Amino acid sequence: MFEILKIENEKIVSHSIVNREPRENEVVVNNWNGTVGEPITYYDENYKRYTDIELINKGLKEIPKGLKIEDDKLIEMSLQEKYEAGLITLAPTQKIVDNWIVEKTQVEKINEGLEELPPQFKKENGEIVSKTMEEMLADGTITQDEYNEYLVMNYKQYLDTTDWVVIKTLELQMKGEKVTHDYSDILAEREKAREEINKLEKEV
Questions:
Q1: What distance lies between CA 121 and its chain's CA centroid?
Q2: 61-96 pLDDT, tens per residue?
């Protein structure tokens, strides 16, 4: 019994166990561990297969796509390496972070012209922040009427949050008790707020 490989045109074309003498183009092997169809250059003189790394180093085989040699081992490339090698493509809005494909930030998209900056926002110190109402009025994002409405809303909110001063003062007076705390500054601000509301509402 012989374990034989048949070789034609420098390739291994078959592997078999036969009960006869080897013929022309057949070689005897022992416990062969290889792949039929591969060239004999992939094997040493005893038909032991070279490792993939050895074949690559000998120039007999190319590095498989998506892999690289590191410390004499074939390992998978990082996403960044695959991207740089043209093996993967990214959408314009995507980037690679920590070997993951993620969406770019809104600031990055705006900086790269992929998105427009909304009119109520601005770039400041590399971040997108809201404009103040004064800035939006100055650059025409809002009208004077819209700005006035904003001021009226703020003044009314101030009155709502300071109503407790009036209520507390009235309660003390109704009980005949003396108001010991000075609320004059708050009361003056409330009066000013009412005057501004009346003035602005006439303008709106």
A1: 22
A2: 999 999 999 998 999 999 999 999 999 999 999 999
